[in-house]
Amino acid sequence: MTESVSAQSVWAQSLSAQFEETFGRAPAGVWEAPGRANFIGEHTDYNDGFVLPFALPYRTSVAAAPRTDRRVVAHSPAAGEPQQFALDGLAPGDVTGWASYVAGTLWALQRAGLEVPGMDLLVSSDVPIGAGLSSSAALECAVGLAALDLGGLDRSGGELGISGLDLARLAQTAENEFVGMPCGLMDQAAAMCSKEGHFLLFDTASQDLEHIPVDLAADEFELLIIDTRAPH
Questions:
Q1: What is the set of active-site residues?
Q2: Sheet of 198-203: strands edge to edge?
Q3: Per the domain annotation, does 208 fall within a domain?
Q4: Which domain holds residue 168?
Q5: For the chain (length 232 residues), average pLDDT per consecutive 10?
Q6: In the prediction, which pLDDT does 79 show?
Q7: What is the CATH number of the domain that holds 161?
Q8: How do 119-125 and 71-75 pair as beta strands?
Q9: What is the C-alpha separation between 211 and 224, in angstroms, rounded?
Q10: HEC assignment per residue over the chain
Q11: What is the pLDDT of residue 160?
């Protein structure tokens, strides 16, 4: 359900090189979040039910570096020209299109009282877009991870830290309130809390989660993700 560390390392090195070509300096790091598929409970996510998603080997990667001003420059070569916006005074409706997921995540972090620096971002993804595999949640979570680390914030999940589920909630807020897309918490929780070799049993009412070990190959099963070309 996830790629090897070496494959991820090659991907990160390639994105770092692209970042340097684009922005003229090396990134501070590369952050990633996966797409997801859902085994059981497709429509219970937003009805306070149980869901059983799992992470896919497809992911969204973000190379980023802090800026000295309060602006964000976000570039995805697949989406055209770079998008720019200011962090100060950022509000829903200020940014549209794919960059609204970036802006919305940073807006949600700021609204939660977290310090978000200006930054340059380069985005690359192999999560199929519009195919129901949570490409938007992967983007939100990868951007959120980058912003937390660039801002020097604690991701340990301790008393004062931000846990993976905390970030998932903020990413959901971004999608609901900034982008204007109603969704439950499953997609973001799967992106942030999934574990290799496991399905994620998630109670969307209590927000309790449990990792369920799965070895499909041992039981001679093969998991297929099929693009039906039907609109999502």
A1: 187
A2: 50-51, 198-203, 209-213
A3: no
A4: 5-34+58-184
A5: 54 91 96 94 85 94 97 93 96 95 98 96 91 92 97 74 91 97 94 95 94 90 82 64
A6: 86
A7: 3.30.230.10
A8: parallel
A9: 21
A10: CCCCHHHHHHHHHHHHHHHHHHHCCCCCEEEEEEEEEECCCCCCHHHCCEECEEEEEEEEEEEEEECCCCEEEEECHHHCCCEEEECCCCCCCCCCCCHHHHHHHHHHHHHCCCCCCCEEEEEEECCCCCCCCCHHHHHHHHHHHHHHHHCCCCCCCCCCCCCHHHHHHHHHHHHHHHHCCCCCCHHHHHHHHCCCCEEEEEECCCCCEEEEECCCHHHCCCCCCCCCCCCC
A11: 57
Domain count across the chain: 1
Place of tokens 């299109």: 97
pTM: 0.92
Q: How far is CA 146 from CA 32, 52, 149, in A?
A: 9, 27, 5
